[in-house]
Amino acid sequence: MTNATIVLEKSILHDGYVHIKEEKIESVGDMANCPSFREVDSVFDCTGKQYVIPGMIDIHVHGAAGFDFMDSSHKAFEGIAQALAKEGTTSYLATTMTNPVKHISKALLNLSKYMGNSNGAGVAEMVGVHLEGPFINKEQKGAQPEKEIIPPNVTLFKEWQELARETIKIITFAPELDNNFELLTELKEIGVLPSMGHTNASYDVAVSAISHGVTHATHLFNGMKGLHHRDPGVVGAALLHDEVYVEIIPDGIHFHLDLLKLILKMKGPERIVVITDGIRAKGMPDGDYNLGGQRVNVLEGKCTLSSNGSLAGSIVTMNDARLNIAKWLGLSIYDQIKITSTNQAKRLGLYNRKGSIEAGKDADIVVLAQNGQPELTICRGAVAYQRNGAFN
Fold first, then answer.
1. So which residues are the catalytic ones?
2. How confident is the model at residue 325 (pLDDT cuts 50, 70, 90)?
C-alpha cells in the first residue's frame, strides 16, 4: 500500500506505505523510504482514501449472509467469514448459542475442524469460539431457547473443550448458578475468559464473581440485572470494577444512546469492547429468519423474536458500529481502533500479532473510503474483499 494515511496506535502516518510479505507486515514507514516493488507485486495506491486501519475483531457474532455458526457446516462457516471481511472484520470468535447438548457438540467439533483445516489467508480468521449459553439464567434468557438452558457443568465444559480442540476462548454464563464457582475456577485455571451474561445475579453475587476472576461482561445492559438504587445489579458491578471489560452493541437499538456516555466515563476506551452480536440476517433483506430454532423477525434494523418481541441479536456491521459510536461520542480514530480491534486482541492474548499495524504482525488491514466504509480488506496478507472500482 502506498500514499496512505495510516492509523498507528498512537499517531497517524501521513503519506506512508505498508509493505506486506506473505501473511505478515514486513515494514511500515514514510513514502520517502518505501521499498521498490517488483512487477509481480500488487500495489494499492491509497491516494484519496480516508484511512488505513487495523482489521477489526468481532468477539461476539453468531452469523451473517444467511448463515449461522450453529448450522455446523463448512459452507456456513465460509459464508460468514467472507461476509465479515466486507465489513472490515478480519478476525472473529465464532459464537454459539443455547441449544440441545448434541447440537452444541456438533457445532464445536465442526468449528474446530474448520479452524484447523480451512482457516487460510484471504478470509476473516476464526481465532476461537465464544460459548454463549447454555449455562445461563432463564430469567434473563433473552433470545436463548429456555428449554435447553442447563446449570453450569464443569464435566460437560471439559468435554466440549476437548471436542473444540481447546478453541473455546470465552464463555458467557450466569455466575449465580455456578455452585461454589466451580466452573469459574476451572475457566481461570485454563485461561478461558469467563463472562457474566444472561444473568440475574445480585450486585453482591456479581462482585463476588469478579473477586473470583470474572473480567468480562457480555453485551452490557442486555440479558442482565440492571441498575437499581438498592441493588446496582450486574450492570453496576461491571461498571464499578475497573478489571471488567464490557461488550457493547452500538446499533442504536439495544440501549439508550446516552448510556454510552456513562459507559465511557466509567470504563474509558481501554475497557470497552465493541461487538455486533450479528445473526444470519446480517447483510440480508428484512424478513423472518431462524435463530436457535426460533423465528426472528427483522424489520428496519431491529431483530426480535416473533414469539414475544424480545431482542434477538443484531444486523449491525462492525464498521457501522464503529462509525455509530464515533458519531455519538466524538471518539478519535485512535479510540475507535482501540474499541474495535486493539482491546479485542489483548483480551484474546493475540496482541503480539493482531490489533495494530506494526512490522511483524499479521497483515490484517482495512482501507477506508472518505465516507468511512471499507474499500479493501486484507486478511493475513491476501485480499478478502475489494469494492468494485475502488482502486482503478
1. 277
2. very high
